[in-house]
Amino acid sequence: MYTGKSYKLLEFIVWTRKSIYLLIIMSIIPTVLYQIFELKWLGISWTVVALLGTATAFIVGFKNTQTYNRTLEAQQTWTSILNTSRSWGIMSRDFLNAPDKTRLLVYRHIAWLTALRYEMRSFRVWETTRRKHNTEYQQYYIIPENESSLDQELSKFLSSAELEYILKTKNKATQIMALQSKTLKELYDAQEIVVLQFVDFQRTIKDFFTQQGRSEQLKDSPYPRQYAIINTLLVHLFCLLLPFGLLKEFDKLNESIGGIMHGNMVWFVIPFSVIISWMYTSLGQVGESTENPYEGNANDVPISKICKLIEIDLKEILGEINLPEIPQPQHNIIL
């Protein structure tokens, strides 16, 4: 998540420079052929290009709205996890008279958060973190899940026996929560909690499973590929045809221009074509970076920070004083 006031223009240009280079080439070629080699037939009707540009703008706007909604849903899901986790810590402390059991439930919950965030950061083939413009930008921030392995992190919160068991399972977060339920059943059978407390715990576990499912659904269900490909094709087609549509329009300006610019107005096709096309390609690239809210891009929902804040809150509830530090943004980016 970007925490600054706004991205700097230079940062944005560097991030999109590959598209800019390609757009410059796409603008120069038809302009040179039209002006130097006098291939006047290359100029096409501006009406055709304008209609295509209008349709493309609607498609790009639709995609960006939907991808923003995905990020918003992810933020809401993890805000719910944050709030419910605090409730879990309070119940674990106040419902039990056994500090060791309280610590077990709290630490195991932190392990659940750890397993879930590592799963959310795992790679999917439709994600964009491995594209060159994104991998280059990753030098400005840290993805915590790439700094240490899952087993190292889980070992801080699980016993060796539980760790060995959990690492063998497919869905580690689910199995950690299953251990929580098993422990609660044992506490209820031993009459260490009453039925209403047991029901409250189980209801909270159900809430955690609901939030985990929402998070997994966003991770494993990408923005529909059929819409994504249409968006990409229309943007590329518009950027390809735009300079051809501008040739005759700028050529007409020579009729009202005198002096050194007379006969040379067509060369303005290059900068104006690049600027307009860059706007479309940049919107598409921004939508791409917002599409998958957990993949590790600079605009992701900061699930690692949220998990660390929950860990601090829960350990304070336990009365611990040796707390982890609150994560700080690097270059205004924090995950």
Descriptive terms for the model:
335 residues, mainly alpha, 12 helices
Short account of what is shown:
The chain has helices at residues 9-15, 17-35, 46-94, 99-121, 132-137, 150-154, 160-167, 172-189, 195-220, 225-252, 269-291, 303-317.
What do you see in this structure?
This protein has 335 residues and is mainly α. The protein is 68% helix and 0% strand. The chain contains 12 helices and no strands. Helix 3 runs antiparallel to helix 4 and helix 8 runs antiparallel to helix 9. The chain is elongated and about 95 Å long. The termini are close together. The mean pLDDT is 91.
Unreliably modeled segments:
none
CA radius of gyration = 27 Å
Number of helical segments?
A: 12
Distance between the termini: 6 Å
Give the amount of beta strand, in percent. Answer: under 5%
Please give the largest β-sheet: none
Structural class: mainly alpha
- Spatial shape: elongated
Helix content percent band = 55-70%
Whole-number mean pLDDT? 91
Helix-strand string: HHHHHHHHHHHH
* E-strand count: 0
